[in-house]
Amino acid sequence: MMDSIDYKILQILQEDGRIPMTKLAKEICLSTPATIERVKKLEANGVITGYKAVVNPNKIGLNFNAFVLTTASLEKRDICTRFVQQDPRVLQAYRVTGRFTGCMKVACSNEESFLDLLHNFYDFGVYETYMIVENLRKREIALPPPEEIEE
Fold it and tell me: What is the pLDDT of residue 151?
């Protein structure tokens, strides 16, 4: 069972996964050994599954960022799924409900690469694209508001 301190640890680590344990301990008002023990417990229980570098796609030349909504026919759904799992330009892919059956976030280096990617989606069925013009908020995972955390 997690408590409000565990959620605070998760919140801080999502913002800075490289924060020194001494600084984390000060921010949550615990001793350093107690903080380390809590982080290790969160890791052991599979709550924290890893640490990674978060890369800004625009800074490495991936300037064509978009959402692609697709409706793949039943016959082509498996082929489409394999494609989105293998193409490095597809950052995230989801099966969704509603008018479309799939939603993908893609990042391409230029217009030619983007059009090449879209050509593949044309083979799977209907698609629509929405260019990302501004990132208003990015979080890896939402945490419950403090008032919803049971002690």
Answer: 59
